[in-house]
Amino acid sequence: MKKIAILSCYTGVVDRGVETFVLEIGRRLSADFDITVYCFDMPHYGKLRVRKINHGIAKPKSSKGFFGKFYLDLQSLKVLIFTLSALPSLTRGKYDLIIPVNGGWQIAIIRLFTRLFGKKMLITGHAGIGSDDAWNLLWQPDIFVALTYAQAQWAKRLTGDIKVVQIPNGVDLHKFNPKILPAKISLPKPIVICASALVPYKRVDLTIRAIAMAKNLSLLVIGDGELKGAVDSLGKRLLGKKYLRLVVPYNQMPSYYKSAKLFTLASETEAFGIAYVEAMACNLPVVTTKDKSRQEIVGDAGILVNTKNLNRYSKALSFVARSNFKNKPYAQALKFSWNKVGTSYKTTIDQLLK
Q1: What confidence score (pLDDT) does residue 269 get?
Q2: Cα angle, residue 81 at apex, residues 77 and 83 outer, rounded to 5°
Q3: Average pLDDT over residues 35-60
Q4: Is the pLDDT of residue 63 over 60?
Q5: Residue 196 · residue 202 · CB < 8 Å
Q6: For the chain, which domains are there?
Q7: 3-state SS string over the chain?
Q8: Which of 57, 144, 287, 308 is the most buried (most CB within 10 A)?
């Protein structure tokens, strides 16, 4: 059985897109490969092996400042130390394939390591179109997995000699589906839900202002982060009793999606956004920022707008709240089953390791 190592230092620290990806895809690949996850801390998950490396990893920040552009900020340096600490075990493990997901210096170190020992490296495009994934491509992975067609085309234009395949992120349709019972929320209906890290590029402040302009909607924010104080202050000032923010365990998220009428996220960029497909799996229509990648994901299960235009954003929210999308969101989510995604990864890895 071929051996695969996945380096994900924040697994066990946060529940976000890439950390969810590591658990879901790792669990599905473990039926055909010997999978080991290197992380800060994680309970054993199915057949996954876990190697815990504790080097003071804290919750990541989105704003890494000037030094972050060169991966010299404290957060990037902690990832560097984490990766260096994993090398002795990676050497002993004799892995056929290594999948580093934390970017920065981790990519450079693992590329040099795999070159030295004749192993393969697979990179997933969880950073999205931009400088971080451009850095990842610079190190010539054996294969780059783009999450959307738009990202795949961008990667191919950027480098012509790296194999690029397109495989989206997924959703567990057993956990997220229309039959889930809704959580009891003390907000006037209709409720708009926004599940997001409270960091600058997610632009939750735009959502609050657009909801306030709509007047007839309530907002449930699920998330935490460095801007929680500012977000709460703005939400309470503009929405009063129509605003509520909660921090919810990931396994309870389906019931909170089901308590809402629609899902929204005004983020500036998204590599993919697992929250979109989770919400649609619970049959929630989506209002989000208009770009090519999100058009692929949402399809006709919602409305995409320029969310910086608060008037248009607010009108879109109101329109979707009073509309009946029937089963279009759930039908769109069916395209992104983790089982389908897992099969695509297995085929890709089989071909890579022949």
Answers
A1: 87
A2: 115
A3: 75
A4: no
A5: yes
A6: 3-170+337-352 (3.40.50.2000), 191-335 (3.40.50.2000)
A7: CCEEEEECCCECCECCHHHHHHHHHHHHHCCCCEEEEEECCCCCCCCCEEEECCCCCCCCCCCCHHHHCCCCCHHHHHHHHHHHHHHHHHHHHCCCEEEECCCCHHHHHHHHHHHHHCCEEEEECCCCCCHHHHHHHHCCCCEEEECCHHHHHHHHHHCCCCCEEECCCCECCCCCCCCCCCCCCCCCCCEEEEECCCCHHHCHHHHHHHHHHHCCCEEEEECCCCCHHHHHHHHHHHHHHHEEEECCCHHHHHHHHHCCCEEEECCCCCCCCHHHHHHHHCCCCEEEECCHHHHHHHCCCEEEECCCCHHHHHHHHHHHHCCCCCCHHHHHHHHHEHHHHHHHHHHHHHHHCC
A8: 287
Residues 6+ apart with CB under 8 A from 130: 269
Residues 6+ apart with CB under 8 A from 156: 164
CA distance 179 to 343: 26
Give the pLDDT confidence score for residue 55 in this predicted structure.
64
Would you say 307 and 313 are in contact if contact means Cβ atoms under 8 Å apart?
A: yes
**Cα separation, 53 vs 9, whole angstroms:** 8
Cis peptide before 190 (omega within 30 of 0): yes
* Residue in this structure with the two tokens 């929320």, named with its chain if needed: 185
pLDDT at position 62 over 70: no
> Of the spans 24-33, 71-80, 107-116, which averages the highest pLDDT?
107-116
Is 0.70 topped by the overall pTM?
Answer: yes
Beta bridge partners of 6: 37, 99
Over its C-alpha atoms, the chain yields an Rg (Å, rounded) of: 20
